[in-house]
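Sequence only, no structure available. Ideas?
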Amino acid sequence: MKEWVPDAARAAGKPVTVGFTLLELAVVLALLGLIGGVVGSLLVRQQRFYRASSELLRTREGVRDALEVLATDIRGAATADTVRLLADSAIELFSALGTSVVCQLNSPTEAGLPASLPASSSRLTSFPTQPDTGDLALFFTQSDTSEQWERHRIASFSSRALEAACPVSSGFSAAADGGSSGYALTLQEPLTPAVHPGTPVRFIRRGRYSLYSASDGEWYLGYRRCNAIGSACAAIQPLSGPYRSYSSNRALTGILFQYFDAAGAPLGSGRSAVDLARVDITARAESHQQLLIEGGVFRPADSGTVSVSLRNRAP
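Reply:
I predicted one. Tokens follow.
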């Protein structure tokens, strides 16, 4: 754009300074400040929105994680006799670790197991979680009059060359499995004569899930690994959270376990765990951060409930 210069100044040959007046600069600065304020406000609101969304997703993930972990382990407990503690904020049970079969008996206290081969069509050993010292091995035995699971505490569990743990001659491994490793299972007590090659084996671990208060003042779902025999448990490890704090009010507490028999009646304090048929689990997660949304304080929260029926429960 061509700027206008006064004729008198041009005729006199005087230098002319062309620019903005103070009023024009004030107007421009005011407009820039207004635009910057609008943009800044939008950015702050977007930041609050994404922060609130992230916290809400986090609480939902906490609810989902708690329900999935607890439902899987309680359902895998199979029978009520593997549940040891029934409390409103804690449950103690034997959870499944894996399955296998006895390939051969190396001694009265040691059994060889086949390899765990994911690609094999005849997979006989499966360990989502490998057993360890102190866990229990259950051997299925049967006679003309009874069937039962013979319990033994594990002294050690280790990998061993397949030729030594489960040779091809046993019929529980194939030549194509060469190069794989089997397992040696050592027990604290001798096996009975009812256990023989081909006997199914289940592995279980005693553990306790509970709602607990951590050092940061928040409440989490934690897990303790416990001795198979006795009451000693290891230090608690956090699994998910945070959740609402514990409360005797069932409508407010962070993690709630409710127990029912086969008729749907709640199990009272005097009832045995053998009567247990269903567990209802409620998780109420709550963010540890308070957010300011549209002028108000907002703390993201979510909750969920799942009912789990025990498998293979005796009628």
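The chain has three helices and 15 strands.
Hope that gets you unstuck.
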